[in-house]
Design brief:
344 residues, alpha/beta, 8 helices
Length: 344
């Protein structure tokens, strides 16, 4: 279950602040975001793309309630000017559909943010897998395509025990489908293709070899470290069904944490919350480490529990360090990162 308040609270643990937070594309009413930020004396502004710029499922969405102001996004320059006039000091995406726009707005406002040229790395399964493969980080083999024939041809040339077919856009309310073979891929394709286009605006799907059946969800928060480089902290870890009733501990749990830190670095996450889903073989065996299913740089998934007894990531987060700056605050942003090859 997705719960926004827990992720918002994780963002704000970085330190007290005052000001106004822009929440981009809160299509589903905005949920409890305004209340969660209000508890920390922060005003919220809803940034709503005009209907023609939204995925089809949200073109007639009910305007969100609870926000101090609302800005209709028709063009970047106009929206940034309005947010600057409202004193916005942080920008967050409400979900998948807001990530790219939120990063572009934060960049124009001079806020710390990831490089907008590589935004798909923070929400697109295909871009993520390609990026990890280029960096030599283990990831499932697969193909990103909008054509069923290409997916079936890929499966024929890559025999596997099974396949996972999912929308390219992570985090939308469309479940991935496990397919046994090429016939299963063909049967699942039409409904999944239409649902992906309806909720994300893109008909692209990603077909991969079926990852391990043990699957885990990790919640993370990233903030600038003392040297200005991003620090990634795993704030929660839970086992997804059918992984079992509890999250792993010991070497298996530490492997999930260490792999997650490598993934966030590779995907260019520099501040704020992210949700990561991993698979870890069918038996958590040491010879097959974690693999990324998807990652989403937005305050969406949790329901996760704490991770006691695990070593901190390679760049540890100090509970004793003064927390004078909020995540994604008016902090000097890093230099632009060149977009990865292939348009990712």
């Amino acid at each position: 279950m997705t719960t926004v308040p827990s992720a918002v609270a994780a963002v704000l643990r970085a330190g007290p602040t005052t000001g106004t937070v822009a929440v981009v594309a809160p299509y589903e009413g905005g949920g409890p975001c305004p209340r969660a930020f209000a508890r920390h004396d922060l005003r919220t502004v809803a940034v709503l793309p005009e209907p023609r710029l939204r995925p089809p499922a949200y073109r007639n969405a009910t305007p969100p309630a609870g926000y101090a102001d609302a800005v209709v996004h028709r063009g970047l320059r106009q929206t940034v000017k309005a947010l600057r006039a409202l004193g916005v000091s942080a920008v967050v995406a409400s979900g998948t559909g807001g990530i790219e726009l939120a990063e572009r707005m934060a960049w124009q406002l001079g806020l710390r943010t990831a490089d907008p040229a590589s935004s798909p790395l923070r929400y697109d399964r295909g871009a993520q897998a390609a990026r990890l493969a280029r960096l030599g980080i283990p990831a499932p083999r697969g193909i990103r395509t909008a054509r069923p024939a290409e997916a079936v041809d890929w499966a024929r040339s890559h025999p596997a025990a099974g396949y996972l077919l999912a929308p390219a856009a992570a985090g939308i309310p469309v479940d991935a489908v496990e397919c046994a073979d090429e016939d299963g891929i063909g049967a699942a394709w039409p409904a999944l293709w239409h649902a992906a286009a309806r909720y994300s605006g893109s008909p692209h799907l990603v077909l991969t070899e079926r990852p391990g059946r043990r699957r885990y969800a990790l919640d993370t928060v990233t903030r600038p470290g003392p040297d200005g480089r991003p620090e990634h902290v795993v704030t929660g870890l839970r086992a997804d069904v059918p992984a079992g009733p509890r999250a792993p501990d010991g070497p298996a749990g530490q492997a999930l944490v260490d792999y997650t830190v490598r993934v966030l670095d590779a995907l260019g996450v520099v501040c704020g919350p992210a949700a990561v889903r991993l698979a870890y073989g069918d038996d958590d065996s040491a010879d097959r480490g974690p693999l990324l299913i998807c990652a989403l740089a937005a305050p969406v998934m949790t329901g996760a529990v704490g991770v006691p007894g695990l070593r901190p990531p390679p760049i540890p987060f100090s509970e004793d360090r003064p927390r004078e700056e909020p995540l994604c605050s008016r902090h000097p942003r890093p230099g632009p990162t060149p977009p990865p090859p292939g348009g990712c």
